[in-house]
């Protein structure tokens, strides 16, 4: 019955948003409240869950989204994105732009949370799209596939890091195995799959469209790269210091503060205000006008993300995720496949990859004592499952749809399909590693 209610809620969202042309935030509210009542919550509990879901979701992403939009708009309007795009295209050519984007996403996706990386790279993607008249989905999907995979598979991202600790795995081995599994998944879901989507015609979000500027008006190359990628550099430096210094040392609280995505983005915006604003001849008021326009661009997007969070919280509060997990717990499937399936179904029903991963991990934890499953591979299997079929109840779906200005149908066939390919490829990679490691490990031990 739980699955049927969730399915009907998703179908209602599709009908309201696609056929009824109802505003997405309003559609979420119109679906979430009846769904909560149908799942057994009282009216008071439904309202409390809606408020908590809105508050928790916006509390976790609003700072990053708003500051990321500010940085992104300044990167676009200053000409820094145009400068970076020109360097990349000059070095690798238009033929290899997908592979260039994929590699860029793979590098910055290791330290950056997905939302930060998305907002940081959107101006670069759109600059390439507008300057070289290439399809937006064709250019952007390989980069975003990299960001998504690394967020789901590889520490220091939240869910994989938590699962390593929960299963008593090895952080270094999980990181190494995660990269091995992530690379083929990104190649298939990114450059290869995106080639089938060249026919999707869209005009991306107007806020990040800027007319090409003469070369003599662009910021310098070094300034463009450093100002745009400062969040990556800050996080990489902080993680390096955290790895090299004692965990409980005097610097630990400061490093933890600096590693917060919101603080990283705030620092980056402050630096860019000078390097891409004042240093390029812009007045402070002109830079602030740019930031104000950026906030207007993402205001409705924030509400939509909050609506997705409200639906997610209602499903969590009703116990839907635990009910699904309990129903699958006694199937007798191999632990790696079961962990992937549990995370996948919870992800489809609830929307949050982190919630899906942690819920599946809680169910799988008791089986660890009765099986010889590799804990590091189980982390990756659950991480792969947690990315399965992102759709209406996932904030990532709406970020992609709204920024790329796509229809629901095209978002499903591009973003949702890419996430599903990533998830399935991730499981296949984990199973291949599980088969190969017993053969390779004894040979490596002899050296």
From TrEMBL:
Highest rank taxon of the organism: Bacteria
Topology of the protein relative to the lipid bilayer: Multi-pass membrane protein
InterPro entries xref list: Glcn_transporter (IPR003474)
Cellular component aspect of the GO annotation: plasma membrane
A GO MF label: gluconate transmembrane transporter activity
Membrane-spanning intervals of the chain: 28-50, 57-76, 96-129, 136-154, 174-194, 222-242, 254-277, 298-325, 337-365, 377-400, 420-445
Keyword Transmembrane helix on entry: yes
Pfam families: GntP_permease
Main location class: membrane
Subcellular location: Cell membrane
NCBIfam families assigned to the protein according to its UniProt record, in alphabetical order: gntP
Family designation: Belongs to the GntP permease family.
Protein name, as recorded: Gnt-I system high-affinity gluconate transporter
Organism: Hymenobacter arizonensis
Lineage start: Bacteria, Pseudomonadati, Bacteroidota, Cytophagia, Cytophagales
